[in-house]
Amino acid sequence: xxxxxxxxxxxxxxxxxLILPPQADTFLIGVLxxxxxxxxxxxxxxxxxxxxxxFFISVVTALLKLLSPGGIKIGPLVAILAEGVLMxxxxxxxxxxxxFLLGGALAIAWNLPHKFIMMRLLFxxxxxxxxxxxxxxxxxxxxxxxxxxxxxxxxxLLIRLSVGAISGWSAWKLGGAVARRLGR
Length: 184
Known about the structure:
By secondary structure, the protein is mainly alpha-helical. It has helices at about 1-20, 20-25, 30-45, 55-65, 75-95, 95-110, 110-125, 125-140, 150-180.
């Protein structure tokens, strides 16, 4: 499952970065790849149900991401590992449909604070600079005026939470269906 998520990150990620405009990098590509990654990792949890399995799936993915034709980028590696940690933290409590939804939602929502943290650590950008850039890109993506900054960020967060929850739910259903079909 880590290999599958890694392949999606490398192949689909490379194509998306080539065909989509730069402002899509900050939102659309991360949400799309994250949603697929969450679905793959959480589906894998059905077959490797040991505690820590989702985290190790994310470790395999991050290691494969090092082979990406776009070169080694620390931001996506940290994001993949953080998503794995967040999903695993929720699943540590219980492995139910609701924890799959919550784990998926938190993993994709991580994309929002991730941007602030990585831009600060790697490029020395302050909160205001990152906030302004995120609002401008969100304004273009959503077609809203930049004066509605908090609304833009709220909508972007809601989309992330929704995609993550849908990915978690899909993984619960898919993993359960495949497990039943295999007689597990």
